[in-house]
Amino acid sequence: MLRPTDLLSIGDIATRTGLAVSAIRYYEEQGLVLPERNRGNQRRFLRSDIRRISFIRIAQQLGLTIADIKDLLATLPNGRTPTKKDWARFSSIFHERLDAKIESLTLLKENLDGCIGCGCLSLSHCAIYNPQDTVAETGHGPRNILPTMETTQKDA
Amino acid sequence: MLRPTDLLSIGDIATRTGLAVSAIRYYEEQGLVLPERNRGNQRRFLRSDIRRISFIRIAQQLGLTIADIKDLLATLPNGRTPTKKDWARFSSIFHERLDAKIESLTLLKENLDGCIGCGCLSLSHCAIYNPQDTVAETGHGPRNILPTMETTQKDA
DNA sequence: CTAATTCCTCAAGCTAACTTGAGGTCAAGC
DNA sequence: GCTTGACCTCAAGTTAGCTTGAGGAATTAG
Questions:
Q1: What is the arithmetic mean of pLDDT over A1-18?
Q2: Which has the higher per-residue pLDDT, A96 or B41?
Q3: pTM to 2 decimal places
Q4: Residue B124 pLDDT greater than 60, yes or no
Q5: Which of A68, A98, A144, B44 could form a disulfide with A64 if both were Cys (CB 3.0 to 4.6 A apart)?
Q6: Do A141 and B140 touch (CB under 8 A)?
Q7: Cβ–Cβ contacts within 10 Å for residue A3, how many?
Q8: Does residue A155 reach within 7 angstroms of strand C, measured from its CB?
Q9: Residue A16, Cα to own-chain centre: how many angstroms?
């Protein structure tokens, strides 16, 4: 338990953050955390990395990708863990994202309401089928959402 | 162009729906559409399948998975394409989903607002870090979202 | 009739965010 | 000092929703 200079092992971090060890290794691989190594090549984290990782999880919940988060963290001087001030700055970014999401979901809902009566599904003038800005589940992977879709409708 | 009994080829459907041919084949594979075959083994769709596929796309936009949609379509008598009445029924389901999503995003936003001042990130009492109900990006794949996460934090 | 399209069926690839496993090393308790 | 548990590094697998490609057959235009 007594670790020199108050450094934490990956297991400690896992316990503290509730993440799997493999996930933390993955974060390191992606450059989100930068633990040092002891002479046996084992990762040694700072206490502040717990906060850093918590920040990562929160950002993920808000819909940011690993890459997004990496960029955000990169804006911090010296690659340090976010402070109160940083946090305030990030918060407003998050806030905007949430607002945008809520707004487009609301829009979608309104369109849906308008559609209940018509039951048209006739593509040409259905507001839901031809949305201006899409949100919903901006899923991962090559999952084209309608508006982005290019007309790749020809076969081999 | 003149097709017997007014049946459509997969290419026609692709053009009409704006989807890729491969996507439509995939939908068939997943049991979302059930085209017949001509004697040359080529798919022949009904005109109503355009509506059916439009429905699928709309449901996807609202965040339903292929499996969800399959289940929904399965509730239709005779596996037919949704009618006005069906559409009204589905609409209310969609409506609920949207409401739930909007609500939890709003909650998240409120928590975030409350957090801007504190800048704690101290896990123990941060409302965002310990959310009751998570939404955000309920991503695909083995991406555990915080509350669901089991304590698999031990290594090999 | 023939060339150009379009279509067919697999099988494999892609993306994000991880997990799982094999094979081996390190550290802590007794 | 030695066993046991924690850790290490790859490589490969997982999920959803498709796309891409190879190799071949059917349709359609001229």
A1: 83
A2: B41
A3: 0.72
A4: no
A5: A68
A6: yes
A7: 11
A8: yes
A9: 20
Chain A environment of B20 (Cβ under 8 Å) = 152-153
Residues of B in contact with A124 (CB under 8 A): none
A140/B136 CB distance under 8 A? no
Asked if A51 contacts B119 with a C-beta cutoff of 8 angstroms, the reply is no
Looking at residue A127, its amino acid is A
The C-alpha atoms of residue B11 and residue B24 are separated, in whole angstroms, by 9
pLDDT of A12 strictly over 80: yes
Predicted confidence (pLDDT) at residue B2 exceeds the cutoff of 80: no
Report CA(B26)–C1'(C11) in Å, whole number.
14
In one letter, which amino acid is A146? L
- Where b means 16+ CB within 10 Å and e means fewer, A120-148 reads bbebeebebbebeeebbbebeeeeebbee
Rounded Cα distance between A59 and A68, Å, is: 9
- CA trace torsion A143, A146, A149, A151 (10° rounding): 130
Contact call for residues A17 and A58 (beta carbons, < 8 A): no
Tokens of B41: 């083994």
CA triplet A111, A114, A120: central angle to 5 degrees?
100
